[in-house]
Amino acid sequence: MSSGTNMDFEYLEHTADAKFRAYGKSLSQAFENAALAMLNVMVDTTSVNNSSSLEVELSSSDLEGLLFDWLSEILFLFEVEEMVFGDVEIKELDISDEECSLSATIYGEKIDHSLHVFDTEVKAATYNDMRIEKIDSLWMVQATVDT
């Protein structure tokens, strides 16, 4: 699990939306930190009591599609389950020529407006300026979400 500190992610300048880069020693960790970067656009994740969890299983034909689906699924669960999430854990991330997939657990609790102060509404993940790169021994994921 990730904490959102020690340069796990950073926000980049963008005129209208939220753009960020997330880092990790593994691709799984970079995907975890991308989710936390997006979640922190919406709410301070340190205010979330991670007392409940949901399982997520996703697959896509390519890595960019998997990142898009991962961020989109978290937004979908936020809306449908009326939960706010404070932590994520990718248990497995598989990449092959035919398919990319991940298995994860997201942790959070039911939304409580007396506890959770919301900042910016994230409407959707986008493919705009998306990048996934390995730089030396570090993975970098860049994403933009529609706010």
What do you see in this structure?
The chain has 147 residues and is of the alpha+beta class. 24% of the residues lie in helices and 41% in strands. The chain is built from two helices and eight strands. The longest helix is centred in the middle third of the chain and has 19 residues. It is globular, with a radius of gyration of 14 Å. The N terminus is likely disordered.
Rg, nearest Å: 14 Å
Structural classification: alpha+beta
CATH superfamily grouping: Archease domain
CATH level 3 topology: Archease, Possible Chaperone, Chain: A, domain 1
The helix content is: 10-25%
Secondary structure: number of strands:
8
Number of continuous helical runs = 2
- Look at the structure and give the mean pLDDT: 93
Low-confidence stretches: 1-5
What distinguishing features does this structure have?
147 residues, Archease, Possible Chaperone, Chain: A, domain 1, disordered N terminus, globular, 5-stranded antiparallel β-sheet, 3-stranded antiparallel β-sheet, alpha+beta
Task: Describe, in short, the structure shown.
Helix content is 24%, strand content 41%. It has 147 residues and is α+β, with helices and mostly antiparallel strands. The chain is globular.
